[in-house]
């Protein structure tokens, strides 16, 4: 009993002793696409230019997650698009003009800047040479060339505001239209197997593949003007910061943004450097770009990753074992518990994070950044199933002979549980903890979706930039950590099992 | 020491023990004898309260078994099963000491008692540091007996204690067990299917068939005046195992 108390105390200490601290400053965010990250860096550098320290939580999981963080006060500012604000954020509310949108956001304590000057919407693209040869400049011009072959990304093919609506709006009747993977479309257009594809109007690939965008002369596509969203209280706390970032208004046109995106995606210049060059060119601001070494990055991410693992796995163990015990002692409650932890396992990680955010906000706990309570809670929930199930199975599979021998000794239930039943089930329980730990190391890459860092960060960036090296920079250490955890538990299992010979 | 008042036990529709009324005297040794599934182990488990009767009452030392008193009663009964029922995660010593530790005996008292018991059951003390997996079947059985005797219970219940042992070790252990029982003067109830073992240990044999006691008495009574055809056949079958016994 004493031993158990000491073990639990040590585990709790290991779980909750802090070794990282949350940096203070203006918190800006970005979503996980290059343009958003570059603009996030711009916000950070402009805030720093106003002599305020700033942190950039980059590549956060999605619109909902980023916007909720802004409303909850975990972020101060980020760059959003008017189309997204209208469709996703204010979805269901009537907001046609910028003024109406501003009004509705204001009610939630959010200010919206004037547009930054470029519109990142859908557009149709042709090879420059082909367009010139045909004399095509607008979408309407396409009606004169029904023999062109169209190849669209699958999403554009399916979206109501994509191809179906466009075709109706312009009365296009091409001979051949096919849906394909969007990245493949660029390759096909280079090969000449397709003539027309869809693109984002500031997509770096436009420059790489030497495409021209056709003018949407009937204004079919909704506008996706970039704007800065920031908390109303930021204007009160740091008016100089708001002033500094509002310099971005009407200052970036489409070619500038496209070129900047291309520098990161094609030339592999870091987003920070691209942003620094941009703010220098536009405003003469000299930004401080931090250079990181591989070793430094690995060290920091290992700490971040371990932080997520220990803070989620240890409480999960301390919660799941009692749940497993209760599940055995009260079978009806038991099947409910096993059902619930099983269902949790099937919730996609981003959805779980978004579901947990309001709860964490209610509890006054941080969602964004290192030590994100939301990420830790999600990981904790994901870790429950193997431990609860194996505790349940382990206790259930104690032989009747041992159960009766334990009963016949005249020991009370609690004493039997601690000294006989749990030790007899320990092999199974340890197996569950091992599975949970290995899974946890893998799942902890979700921390990157919410700014908690870890090995997920380079994986997300690598996927975005199609950079295998960067993906491996996250995937290899994560896999190694999982292997180390596996070996560690194998060793514990060996120590735990009684000698046979 | 034990009393069954109209005790029966059913598992679903299967009758394990038909309504039985009997008394077992203190300081006597009894053997519950019969083929497998005759209800003899069920009787033992009813005595320990590991099973509760479907009808009737089981009394221990004149008091009906009550759920809230079971732990106390069980600590006054030593229970030995095949292979000793040892817990594989505990050393032999810790298996024996388990209950005394719960009762907060001091370490010296535990050590002294275990040393005494290891002499009684003729088990070298140094083998007590080993785990059950490292002991032979006979040694495990001796450890199981030590664990049952640790609190010096008034009663020993043994469920086929020698069932899994090879013949030579079995013979040695039979000898030792009988010596121990005589020395300790305890109430002993042993379950076996082996007539020779029954003869060896029992003051009185209770022969069971299909969930009821068909005859109760000494081996002589069973042989000379079998209560029915089953008793006669049971005895004949087991005697004929020995060469020349049929002659």
Distance between the termini of chain A: 29 Å
Query: Helix segment count of chain B?
Result: 9
Helix content of chain A: 55-70%
Query: What fraction, in percent, of the residue positions of chain B are helical?
Result: 25-40%
Task: Please trace the helix and strand order of chain B, writing H or E for each element.
Answer: EEEHEEHEHHHEHEHEEHH
Largest sheet of chain A: 5 strands, mixed
Total beta-strand segments of chain A: 10
Regarding quaternary structure, what we see is heterodimer
Largest interface: A-B, 21 and 28 residues
Strands of the largest sheet of chain A, in order across it? 2-1-3-10-4
Low-pLDDT sequence parts of chain A: none
Summarize the structure in words:
- The complex is a heterodimer of chains A (501) and B (247).
- Helices cover 60% and strands 10% of the residues of chain A.
- Chain A is built from 22 helices and ten strands.
- In chain A, helix 20 runs antiparallel to helix 22.
- The longest helix of chain A has 36 residues, at 294-329.
- Chain B is globular and about 55 Å long.
- In chain B, helix 3 packs parallel to helix 5 (137-149).
- The longest helix of chain B is centred in the last third of the chain and has 18 residues, at 167-184.
- Helices cover 38% and strands 25% of the residues of chain B.
- Chains A and B meet through helix 19 and helix 20 of A and helix 2, strand 6 and helix 3 of B.
Topology of this structure?
The complex is a heterodimer of chains A (501) and B (247).
Chain A: H1 2-16, E1 26-31, H2 34-49, E2 54-60, H3 63-72, E3 77-81, H4 82-89, H5 98-106, E4 110-112, E5 122-127, H6 128-134, E6 149-153, H7 154-158, H8 163-170, E7 176-180, H9 182-191, E8 196-200, H10 204-208, E9 211-213, E10 226-231, H11 232-237, H12 239-245, H13 254-265, H14 271-283, H15 294-329, H16 331-346, H17 349-362, H18 373-396, H19 400-408, H20 413-443, H21 456-465, H22 468-496
Parallel strand pairs in A: 1-2, 1-3, 6-7
Antiparallel strand pairs in A: 3-10, 4-10, 5-8, 5-9
Chain B: E1 2-11, E2 14-24, E3 29-33, H1 40-48, E4 55-60, E5 63-64, H2 70-75, E6 77-81, H3 92-102, H4 107-120, H5 137-149, E7 155-159, H6 167-184, E8 187-192, H7 195-201, E9 204-209, E10 212-217, H8 219-224, H9 229-239
Parallel strand pairs in B: 3-8, 3-9, 6-7, 7-8
Antiparallel strand pairs in B: 1-2, 1-4, 4-5, 9-10
Helix pairs in contact in B: 3-5
